């Protein structure tokens, strides 16, 4: 791996790490979701900065050009993050559906009680026996 590609890979990893931290600081990304991105950026930083590790992993996997391993790892981490977010979205969708059903039932019950109250005859105010 050439020096320029190492510098580019390390720079991109550090930039991603700082960007995620900044998103968390500005409350644009929750901490629980930032951990996946931070782990990904850190793993990419380690693999791209540690040449022997990158070359050893590439040889073990059978990849002839070690920088391709960086792209493969980035794609795999991205897929893992997408899968995690898909499970979160699925859970939130189910919770929203259940909440909407509960709200609909509460609205129905409220309307039923209002209708029932309107049908009952209005009793004139009866004075208290003690106070009057």
Number of domains: 1
Q: What's the mean pLDDT score?
A: 89
Shape: rod-shaped
Number of strands: 0
Nearest-angstrom radius of gyration?
30 Å
Q: How many DSSP helices?
A: 4
- Largest sheet, strands/sense/barrel: none
- As a percent range, the share of strand residues is under 5%
Class by helix and strand content?
Answer: mainly alpha
Helix content: over 70%
Spell out the helices and strands N to C. HHHH
- Poorly predicted tracts of residues: none
CA distance, first residue to last residue: 98 Å
Describe this structure as you would to a colleague:
There is one protein chain. Helix 1 runs antiparallel to helix 2 (31-49) and helix 3 crosses helix 4. The longest helix is centred in the last third of the chain and has 54 residues, at 66-119. The chain has one domain. Helices cover 81% and strands 0% of the residues. The protein has helices spanning 3-25, 31-49, 51-61, 66-119. With 132 residues, the chain is mainly alpha-helical.
């Amino acid at each position: 791996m050439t020096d320029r590609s190492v510098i580019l890979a390390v720079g991109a990893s550090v930039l991603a790490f700082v960007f995620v931290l900044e998103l968390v600081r500005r409350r644009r990304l929750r901490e629980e979701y930032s951990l996946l991105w931070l782990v990904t950026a850190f793993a990419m930083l380690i693999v791209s900065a540690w040449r022997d590790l990158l070359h050893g992993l590439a040889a073990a996997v059978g990849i002839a050009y070690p920088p391709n391993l960086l792209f493969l790892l980035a794609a795999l981490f991205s897929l893992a993050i997408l899968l995690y977010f898909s499970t979160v979205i699925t859970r939130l969708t189910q919770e929203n559906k259940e909440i909407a059903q509960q709200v609909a039932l509460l609205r129905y019950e409220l309307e039923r009680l209002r209708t029932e109250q309107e049908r009952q005859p209005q009793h004139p105010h009866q004075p208290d026996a003690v106070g009057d």
